[in-house]
Design a protein that fits this description.
Structural class: alpha/beta
CATH architecture: 3-Layer(aba) Sandwich
Helix content: 25-40%
Number of domains: 1
Shape: globular
Number of helices: 9
Radius of gyration: 19 Å
Number of strands: 12
CATH superfamily: P-loop containing nucleotide triphosphate hydrolases
């Protein structure tokens, strides 16, 4: 359902859509010969938790790169809040800071402190001089400390990142993304290589942030059970194609996209990862 707000003189001032991300027949390639993604149709509701699951090399990470403008499609249409995500698009450049992106590598600066890493998320709000000399205003430092507490890193503000555990590093990466004050959070395999307990702690953290900050969280996973446990919907990607979109409602796994998979195959996919 779309919402339209109008100014007093009845001219349109803002159009807001429930669908924050829309992809229509999207194809993309890294070498102009072989397609990494083929015919992707995707629609993600604002303020929800959405997961993308599939084997290595299936195109999951490529989907995130398309959403944050790091890649452009060979054909098809992508809209992020009505804006085409391309680096040469002026409207998209203005909204880039509202997309928090956590790559598989986390992208942290390992030889600086936790709080310094997190403050990097505020750079888009600083003046050129402040950005150049990393002179962070007091209000940004206060906000960084608030987020540090939010992600459970109190007392480790001055610790160098290379001294942290794997789970703690992921908390720093999440905190840096939240420091951007995003509306969309993209996370690529953020719980991979973590033990089950730590993985769930990270998932709980992102879910809490998604709800309290009204974020749209889009996460790439390899674990179907974990994805279904936390996401409103899960897209299954195989060999560059979206073959299924499912979710959990009560005690049922609901198929939102009728595909070639049988109910038994869906259940086996869930059970194997369990």
């Amino acid at each position: 359902m779309n919402q339209i707000q109008m100014s007093q003189n009845s001219s349109f001032s803002l159009i807001s859509t429930k669908k924050i991300i829309q992809m229509s027949d999207v194809w993309t390639s890294y070498d102009s010969k072989n397609f990494a993604l083929e015919g992707i149709n995707l629609s993600i509701d604002r303020g929800t938790n959405y997961s993308i699951v599939g084997p290595s090399g299936s195109g999951k990470s490529t989907l995130l790169k398309l959403m944050n403008g790091m890649m452009i499609p060979s054909k098809g249409i992508i809209k992020i809040d009505y804006v085409t995500p391309q680096m040469n698009n002026k409207k998209f450049k203005k909204m880039m800071h509202t997309i928090g992106y956590i790559p598989q590598s986390l992208g942290l600066v390992k030889n600086i402190s936790v709080i310094e890493n997190i403050l990097l998320g505020s750079l888009p709000r600083l003046t050129k001089v402040q950005s150049l000399f990393k002179k962070f205003p007091e209000n940004e430092i206060t906000e960084a400390k608030r987020i540090i507490k939010l992600v459970g890193l109190s007392g480790k503000e001055e610790r160098k990142v290379y001294m942290l555990s794997g789970g703690e590093k992921r908390r720093v990466a999440i905190a840096r993304a939240l420091m951007q004050k995003p509306t969309i959070l993209l996370a690529d395999e953020i719980v991979s290589e973590l033990d089950n307990v730590t993985a769930r702690e990270i998932m709980e953290l992102i879910t809490d942030a998604q709800k309290t900050m009204n974020l749209t969280a889009i996460m790439v996973h390899h674990d179907m059970q974990l994805a279904l446990e936390y996401a409103n919907r899960v897209a299954v990607i195989k060999e560059g194609k979206k073959i299924l979109e499912i979710g959990v409602e009560g005690d049922n796994i609901v198929d939102f996209q009728t595909g070639d998979m049988t109910t038994q195959e869906i259940m086996e996919m869930y059970s194997d990862d369990a």
